[in-house]
Amino acid sequence: MCISVPMKVLEIKGQRGIADIGGMSREIDLRLLSQVKVGDYVIVHAGFALQRLDQNEAEETLSLLREVLAHEAPG
Fold first, then answer.
1. In the chain, which ranges are E strands?
2. pTM for this structure?
């Protein structure tokens, strides 16, 4: 199963960026979006930023993901 997740852009280096989710940083590809800025939240799938999100929507989605993962954790 594949999932897209909101990540916060920390750095931009040309068409690549560094984004954070839960304290983990990953390199992402920004070629599919225009005008991404440091501090923006983006939906990332397979290493590609697909869409920008506003901060409230991103935080709500991340909260729901944490809730689901908490129910999936063993015992």
1. 5-13, 16-21, 24-29, 41-45, 48-53
2. 0.84
Whether 48 and 7 have beta carbons less than 8 Å apart is answered as: no
DSSP state of 56: H
Q: Residue 51 and residue 67: Cα distance in Å, rounded? A: 23
Question: One-letter amino acid identity for 71?
Answer: H
Tokens 């983006």, residue located: 42
- By residue count, the chain amounts to 75
CATH code, domain with 50: 2.30.30.140
Phi, psi of 59 (to 5 degrees): -65, -35
pLDDT reading at 47 higher than 90? yes
Number of domains in the chain: 1
| Pair 4, 50: CB distance under 8 Å | yes
Residues 70 and 47: their CA atoms lie apart, in Å, by 24
